[in-house]
Amino acid sequence: MSGAKAVRVASGGNPARRLYDHIGEFLFEQRLEPDPANFAFAYHLLADPEGALAKAVRALTDGGVRLTQRDIDSLDCDVKPVASGAAAKEQADGLVAQTQMQVEGFHDMVAAMRAETEDFGRDLAASAKAIGDLPGGIPEVARLTTEMLERVRTAESRLDAATREATELRSKLEEARDNARRDPLTDLPNRRAFEEAFSAQAASGATMCLAVCDVDHFKSVNDRFGHAVGDRVLKAIAAALGEACAGHLVARYGGEEFAVLFTGVDKTAARATLETARAKVATRNYRVREGDTPLGEITFSAGLTVASVDEMCATAFQRADRLLYAAKEGGRNQVRAD
What we know:
single chain; alpha+beta; Alpha-Beta Plaits; 5-stranded mixed sheet; elongated
């Protein structure tokens, strides 16, 4: 069922159940993942079959063409589940940051208390020894002082344990914040980390070039060999980009798409680096590990643009993305720059 047909069919249904069924049919026919974002997109599309979104989808799918994830992203549908998820993520990040600040403050406080207790313990020990050495001694005072010293030592031990726990918790919080900005498959920074880095570099006034890279015919790899092999291909390309673009930020932006943020170099140097990565990927002999079956040619296309410090990451990304489309339409396995 094409996207246009799905929209037309939805208009004749009886409410909830038919709409729900058509959403499932739409995602299946378009071979889209049934994740919350795509489900919400399908809902907005099919619930209003004569709306602007439906008309845009009909234009894109005219002739039986399937929608791609990139098409959905380009339509920029304002879907509440996604916005809600983003807000929840932002709130969670705020809580993590607040907790980390509290842990660091507690760690510093405990460290200061421990230092003061150690100093007091040393002074108290010296005083106890001096009292005990007096002619005739003062047994009761010495006994009380010794008892106080034992209590100080116990407090030191507890403070030491609290310091270790605070240090461990701070380390775990830092790890959690890092994981939230890292792609678990390729271990590259994710889209969020990339956009944060772009903003930071723009604020510093650094020279920037932004590249968008997309694996050619990646769907064919998944269809022929399965997603496990497709994941290995993504990891191999991530490694090739990371090695060729060492010193610059390489991120997995989503799906089979990668982004590279070049800083401190001009467009000519950035393009030469990308060409090195592209050639390395294209000339490699990819095979299925289990049966040594050739995968065939694996390549990627890329769009490269110069980013100015006064523009948003999304603006520069869209410009590079259009250049990527031009590279795809021009035969793939190439880099296009503005």
